[in-house]
């Protein structure tokens, strides 16, 4: 029997990895709903574009009527909700879109899902899941020690993380109040292929390749826990299928690194894989710039619950995953050149002055 997945934000970085992965399994059918903002790219779905069990709908999740129509027509078994405004620096410059998409959009999707779920026959009703994909940034910032668990209190610091915290609370409340079978995940920083080049790793790779300055915020000592997007996609599919209703799961890569060490590692990889005498050693391109206002010092995930309950563990080491990612950007210049030819040209965002 076919399992029907409605994936919002499926043209984005993580959503497209989920869709490509779902369609590797026979018996899965996927409808992607995506507004195609600057961050959404159909090129990232090109590998599945002609798959017989793949469909695409361009729509805004804030549009309640369009969402209800999509649920009635597609009749999903599982909703994987990834559509969001996702870049902290953009949320500092213009928080309005974050409130609309991340909070109001999640609300309209929950309402459409609830109306659909209430009409399902008993056996489909029990199996239905609404999966909200969120971030570890809702927990705030850590000191030098400790980890975020599923019980860590929420303390979002940026407009982005506050909007994601709000949507987490809505999803939890739709379970508690209306019984909608939801599951939630909070994950650490992702990296890997098809990552929009405004985020640290792809921006550094592309600038270093082109011999441009490599901006590092503050002193570069902020720590992130890096998770390969394909490890994440597999974890999300496991949670969507086997997670217990009402539960949340933290997903992390067990890969803590300072930003400056990540940038240095990319420089070394490019010097090896794409040496360029006219540029010289890429480390010389590193430029320290004004820190992000309210920049969280450290994020790190305790992923023991998902390991124990669902048997998931990341299989990429950061070293192998980063090498593979750098190689992917070297091999897929047309993808990032096309993506970059849109509205974003690599400029600095989010200084709040
Ligand atoms: P992304 O910015 O690459 O993609 C977001 C997608 O959502 C895009 O395709 C965009 O077109 C679409 N979208 C935006 N607004 C929309 C709207 N109103 N209606 C319909 N579609 C809309 O984001 P990503 O990095 O793939 O992140 C996916 C999810 O995972 C987000 O919810 C994000 O908060 C969460 N997350 C991401 C990370 C990370 O490291 N990238 C870490 C933790 C959590």
Description:
This protein has helices at residues 13-22, 64-74, 88-93, 96-118, 122-127, 159-178, 200-209, 229-242, 259-273, 304-310, 318-331, 333-340, and strands spanning 3-8, 28-34, 54-58, 78-81, 129-135, 182-187, 190-191, 214-217, 223-225, 227-228, 248-251, 256-258, 286-289. With 353 residues, it is an alpha/beta fold. The chain has a domain at 3-196 and 226-252 and 299-316: 3-Layer(aba) Sandwich (Rossmann fold), CATH 3.40.50.720. The strands form 4 sheets. A 7-stranded parallel sheet has the order 3-2-1-4-5-6-11, sandwiched between helices. It has a two-stranded parallel ribbon with strand order 7-10. Strand 1 (3-8), helix 1 and strand 2 form a beta-alpha-beta unit. Helix 1 crosses helix 8 (229-242) and helix 2 packs parallel to helix 4. The structure holds nicotinamide-adenine-dinucleotide. Nicotinamide-adenine-dinucleotide binds next to helix 1, helix 4 and strand 5.
Summarize the entry for a quick read:
The relative contact order is 0.14. This protein has twelve helices and 13 strands. It is of the alpha/beta class and 353 residues long.
Keywords:
7-stranded parallel β-sheet, 353 residues, globular, binds nicotinamide-adenine-dinucleotide, Rossmann fold, alpha/beta, single chain
Spatial strand arrangement across the major sheet: 3-2-1-4-5-6-11
Q: Return Rg in Å.
A: 20 Å
Strand content: 15-25%
Classify the secondary structure makeup into a structural class.
alpha/beta
Can you tell me the CATH topology of the domain at 3-196 and 226-252 and 299-316?
Rossmann fold
Compute the number of strand runs.
Answer: 13
What is the CATH C-level name of the domain at 3-196 and 226-252 and 299-316? Answer: Alpha Beta
Cα-to-Cα separation, first versus last residue: 55 Å
pLDDT < 50 runs, ≥5 residues: none
Order of SSEs: EHEEHEHHHEHEEHEEEHEEHEHHH
- How much is the average pLDDT? 95
By DSSP (H or I, 4+ residues per run), the number of helices equals: 12
CATH superfamily of the domain at 3-196 and 226-252 and 299-316: NAD(P)-binding Rossmann-like Domain
Hetero groups in this structure are:
nicotinamide-adenine-dinucleotide
Which CATH architecture of the domain at 3-196 and 226-252 and 299-316 is right?
Answer: 3-Layer(aba) Sandwich
């Amino acid at each position: 029997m076919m399992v029907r997945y409605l994936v919002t934000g499926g043209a984005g970085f993580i959503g497209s990895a989920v869709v490509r992965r779902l369609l590797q399994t026979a018996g899965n059918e996927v409808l992607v709903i995506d507004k195609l903002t600057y961050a959404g790219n159909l090129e990232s779905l090109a590998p599945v574009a002609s798959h017989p069990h793949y469909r695409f709908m361009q729509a805004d999740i804030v549009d309640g009527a369009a969402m209800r129509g999509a649920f009635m027509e597609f009749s999903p078994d599982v909703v994987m909700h990834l559509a969001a405004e996702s870049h902290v620096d953009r949320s500092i410059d213009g928080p309005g879109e974050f409130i609309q998409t991340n909070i109001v959009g999640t609300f309209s999707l929950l309402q459409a899902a609830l109306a659909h779920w209430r009409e399902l026959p008993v056996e489909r009703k029990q199996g239905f899941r609404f999966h909200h994909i969120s971030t570890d940034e809702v927990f705030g910032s850590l000191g030098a020690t400790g980890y975020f668990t599923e019980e860590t209190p929420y303390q979002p610091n940026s407009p982005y993380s506050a909007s994601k915290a709000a949507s987490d609370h809505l999803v939890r409340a739709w379970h508690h109040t209306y019984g909608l079978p939801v599951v939630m995940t909070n994950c650490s920083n992702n990296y890997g292929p098809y990552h929009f080049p405004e985020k640290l790793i792809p921006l550094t790779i592309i600038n270093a390749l082109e011999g441009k300055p490599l901006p590092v915020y503050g002193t570069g000592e902020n720590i992130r826990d890096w998770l390969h997007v394909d490890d994440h996609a597999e974890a999300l599919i496991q949670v969507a299928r086997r997670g217990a209703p009402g539960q949340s799961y933290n997903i992390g890569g067990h890969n803590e690194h300072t930003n400056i060490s990540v940038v240095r590692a990319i420089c070394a990889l490019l010097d090896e894989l794409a040496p360029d005498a006219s540029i010289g050693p890429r480390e010389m391109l590193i430029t320290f710039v004004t820190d992000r206002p309210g920049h969280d010092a450290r994020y790190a995930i305790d992923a023991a619950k998902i390991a124990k309950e669902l048997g998931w563990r990341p299989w990429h080491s950061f070293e192998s995953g980063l090498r593979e990612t750098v190689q992917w950007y070297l091999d897929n210049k047309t993808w990032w050149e096309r993506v970059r030819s849109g509205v974003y040209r690599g400029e600095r965002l989010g200084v709040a002055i």
